[in-house]
Design the sequence.
């Protein structure tokens, strides 16, 4: 959530979405990990021809007020990219996907900051969802100094 992190991740995420060929209306995922990434991507898209809206998926529906599971400017019919900070098992992304589908959204794919390479990508792909990650855990660890 640092300014430098948001300034880096927003444009990288937006470029990855466009590079994947996804033409979407909104980005978001399960709170809390996806929230800053989705907001950074939405902000980075603001001055483009295709600005994206950010939304968040609650872990549980509100027990008061509207009782909504999805917060933000998400609308039924939106094509969305589900955002993940890290994919491990794929469970968080699948919960967000279920909420988006339940709200009338269309899933274009899943964008992860880091794929931990522990089976999550495969679980999501087995459900028919394309996954793009900005980095693999093995790439990160390979770039670390010995003992670091």
Sequence:
């Amino acid at each position: 959530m640092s300014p430098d992190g948001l300034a880096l991740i927003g444009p990288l995420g937006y470029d990855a979405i466009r590079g994947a060929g996804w033409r979407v209306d909104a980005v978001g995922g399960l709170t809390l990990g996806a929230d800053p990434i989705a907001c950074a991507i939405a902000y980075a898209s603001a001055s483009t021809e295709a600005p994206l809206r950010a939304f968040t998926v609650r872990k549980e529906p509100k027990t008061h007020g509207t009782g909504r599971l999805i917060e933000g400017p998400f609308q039924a019919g939106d094509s969305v990219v589900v955002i993940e900070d890290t994919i491990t098992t794929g469970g968080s992304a699948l919960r967000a996907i279920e909420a988006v589908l339940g709200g009338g959204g269309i899933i274009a794919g899943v964008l992860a900051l880091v794929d931990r390479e522990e089976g999550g990508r495969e679980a999501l792909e087995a459900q028919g969802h394309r996954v793009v990650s900005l980095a693999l855990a093995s790439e990160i660890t390979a770039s670390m100094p010995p003992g670091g």
In short: The helical segments are 3-19, 35-45, 91-102, 120-126, 137-142.
